[in-house]
């Protein structure tokens, strides 16, 4: 369980995240939604120690993150940001092998190799594993990075807009994989999403932010309601039930 | 494995260069010429080692393959220091004539300067590395301008001495300084070697590195301090030669095509030893001292730099 206690971040005098307290349930997909500039990514960065919080604390299974060693933290929580530019040329397999770094410090054991194989298999990348990252499409690259995170084998996986720049097919593919990570492997996934329909269809829990504060925090059914969405986005969004999915029709509202 | 073979071949070539330099035309002068040549070779090995290591590490930290650590203004500070000492105290002052003293003063000044500069980095902030570089460029340019100002005013005879310091030279090296440098570099490398696999992760960028459990800020800090120490040592020992690092680092990237710093750094070190020792032999035996090694290095390096820029432009 990840507990966020009154976390704040200021740039100058402007609060980007202000007094946010939320609890992330284990073995569920939790989505952060909200308008641009609501502080979703900042919050995720602070939880994953990419960014220092100005006030407040983050507890993982009741241990303060600041008291954990970087390496131990990396065995429990992984984070994937939206832009992953790098200036070295790596193959997919080399990138995924880096996921084992917290465990083996670059000297892969047979066990590590096996886990790398499994992660590649899981992301359907085994055939492409010796291709270089700069030769891949956006969707394949994103899958390669997720495979690295799977190889890292952490209980908590945090993803910052993993669907950015992906088409429908690849977005669905990624979301289904995340669902399987939770349902089959018992991981806890926290994800920042822009498309509320993906949040509605795939997540168990939704936390909505606006102007640096939490405005809604509850199970998906409670948040995907016209009244709640009005509060979050200032838009009248009708909701249609289609099969098992609740779809927000926001295009002409 | 192919890279291992390449390294072994390069090491053999480097050993061949050293042997050639040490024993060519020795005419049995084991007592006089050989010890002097040994000192020079050791000095070149130290210089090659420090420059290659510092440049590769610096480029990894800054994620930029056409930067050299000289951007932090350390060699500009060295020249300013030498110019000012000669300008105010004269070339016959003990700080100029006593090489040990001069070495220590230069070394301490450069390291203190680098640490002050890093104060900016130690403060928390997101674009801290680029801010550090920016400050380094500005301060370095400032130092160069002041040096030029004093060089214009200085007595022409004294200027000869200053000019002598402006180019790296292996022709007149003090043996005591070589051994002292060897000790410092040895200590630093024992300390730094265990971080070498962390460098592989650093090249993936800050966020991925932190995700993989690398204490990014603290490692970058320690690495930058080692870079400063290495650059200061090579500059105080032979003079400003950081441009050379750009060539060997990029040759190493081209030659090994890997992300593993163990290979890249070792390769760059061996390449720089070949270039320095082999180059010095050419300077001494073929040009018979009519030029200095650093002039050749700057010429070859300049041409290579232009080639890199043209190539990067094509790739973009």
UniProtKB/TrEMBL annotation, chain A:
Primary location: membrane
Lipid bilayer topology: Peripheral membrane protein
Record-linked InterPro entries: AAA+_ATPase, ABC_transporter-like_ATP-bd, ABC_transporter-like_CS, P-loop_NTPase, Siderophore_ABC-ATPase
Keyword Chloroplast: no
Localization per Swiss-Prot or TrEMBL: Cell membrane
GO cellular component: plasma membrane
S-adenosyl-L-methionine found in the keyword field: no
Domain ABC transporter: 2-236
Any GO molecular function: ATP binding
Swiss-Prot/TrEMBL keywords: ATP-binding, Cell membrane, Ion transport, Iron, Iron transport, Membrane, Nucleotide-binding, Transport
Gene3D superfamilies: P-loop containing nucleotide triphosphate hydrolases
Annotated TM spans: none
One annotated GO biological process: iron ion transport
The protein, known as: ABC transporter ATP-binding protein
From TrEMBL, chain B:
SUPFAM superfamilies assigned: ABC transporter involved in vitamin B12 uptake, BtuC
Pfam families: FecCD
GO cellular component: plasma membrane
Keyword Transmembrane carried by entry: yes
Superkingdom of source: Bacteria
Location within or outside the cell: Cell membrane
UniProt-listed GO biological process terms: siderophore-iron import into cell
Keywords: Cell membrane, Ion transport, Iron, Iron transport, Membrane, Transmembrane, Transmembrane helix, Transport
One MF term in the entry's GO annotations: transmembrane transporter activity
Keyword Cell membrane attributed: yes
Ranges that cross the membrane: 7-26, 38-58, 70-89, 101-122, 129-154, 177-196, 237-256, 263-283, 289-310
Topology relative to the membrane: Multi-pass membrane protein
Predominant place of localization: membrane
InterPro entries associated with the record: ABC_BtuC-like, ABC_transptr_permease_BtuC
Family: Belongs to the binding-protein-dependent transport system permease family. FecCD subfamily.
Record protein name field: Iron chelate uptake ABC transporter family permease subunit
Lineage start: Bacteria, Bacillati, Bacillota, Bacilli, Bacillales
């Amino acid at each position: 369980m990840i507990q966020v206690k009154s976390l704040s971040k200021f740039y100058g005098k402007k609060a980007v995240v202000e007094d946010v307290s939320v609890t992330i349930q284990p073995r569920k997909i939790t989505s952060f939604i909200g308008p641009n500039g609501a502080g979703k990514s900042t919050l995720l960065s602070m939880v994953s120690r990419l960014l220092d919080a100005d006030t407040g604390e983050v507890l993982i299974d009741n241990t303060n993150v600041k008291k954990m060693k970087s390496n131990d933290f990396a065995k429990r929580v992984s984070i994937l940001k939206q832009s992953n530019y790098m200036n070295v040329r790596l193959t997919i397999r080399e990138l995924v092998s880096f996921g084992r770094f917290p465990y083996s410090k670059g000297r892969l054991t047979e066990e590590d190799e096996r886990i790398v194989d499994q992660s590649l298999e899981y992301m359907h990348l085994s055939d492409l594993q010796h291709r270089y990252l700069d030769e891949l499409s956006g969707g394949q690259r994103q899958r390669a990075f997720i495979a690295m995170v799977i190889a890292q084998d952490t209980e908590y996986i945090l993803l910052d807009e993993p669907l950015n720049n992906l088409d429908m097919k690849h977005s669905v593919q990624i979301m289904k994989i995340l669902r399987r990570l939770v349902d089959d492997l018992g991981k806890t996934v926290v994800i920042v999403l822009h498309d509320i329909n993906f949040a509605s269809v795939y997540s168990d829990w939704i936390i909505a932010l606006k102007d640096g504060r939490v405005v809604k925090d509850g199970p998906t059914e409670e948040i995907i309601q016209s009244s709640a969405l009005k509060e979050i986005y200032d838009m009248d969004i009708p909701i249609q039930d289609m099969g098992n999915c609740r779809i927000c029709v926001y295009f002409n509202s | 494995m192919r890279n291992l073979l390449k390294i072994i071949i390069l090491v053999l070539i480097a050993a061949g260069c050293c042997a050639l330099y040490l024993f060519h035309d020795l005419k049995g002068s084991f007592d006089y010429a050989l010890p002097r040549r040994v000192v020079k070779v050791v000095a070149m090995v130290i210089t090659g080692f420090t420059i290659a290591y510092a440049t590769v590490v610096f480029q990894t930290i800054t994620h930029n393959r056409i930067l050299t650590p000289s951007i932090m203004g350390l060699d500009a500070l060295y020249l300013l220091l030498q110019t000012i000492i000669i300008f105010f105290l004269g070339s016959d002052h003990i700080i100029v004539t006593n090489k040990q003293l001069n070495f220590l003063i230069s070394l301490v000044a450069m390291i203190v300067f680098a640490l002050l500069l890093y104060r900016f980095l130690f403060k928390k902030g997101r674009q801290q590395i680029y801010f550090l570089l920016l400050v380094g460029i500005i301060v370095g340019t400032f130092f160069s301008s002041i040096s030029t100002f004093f060089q214009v005013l200085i007595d022409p005879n004294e200027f000869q001495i200053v000019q002598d310091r402006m180019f790296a030279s292996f022709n007149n090296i003090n043996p005591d300084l070589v051994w002292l440098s060897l000790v410092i570099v040895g200590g630093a490398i024992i300390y730094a070697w265990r971080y070498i696999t962390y460098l592989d992760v650093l090249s993936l960028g800050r966020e991925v590195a932190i995700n993989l459990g690398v204490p990014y800020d603290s490692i970058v800090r320690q690495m930058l301090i080692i870079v400063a120490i290495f650059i200061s040592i090579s500059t105080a020992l032979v003079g400003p030669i950081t441009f050379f690092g750009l060539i060997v680092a990029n040759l190493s990237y081209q030659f090994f095509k890997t992300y593993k710093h163990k290979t890249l750094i070792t390769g760059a070190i061996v390449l720089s030893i070949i270039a320095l020792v082999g180059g010095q032999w050419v300077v001494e035996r073929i040009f018979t001292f009519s030029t200095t090694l650093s002039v050749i290095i700057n010429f070859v390096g300049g041409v290579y730099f232009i080639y890199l820029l043209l190539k990067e432009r094509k790739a973009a």
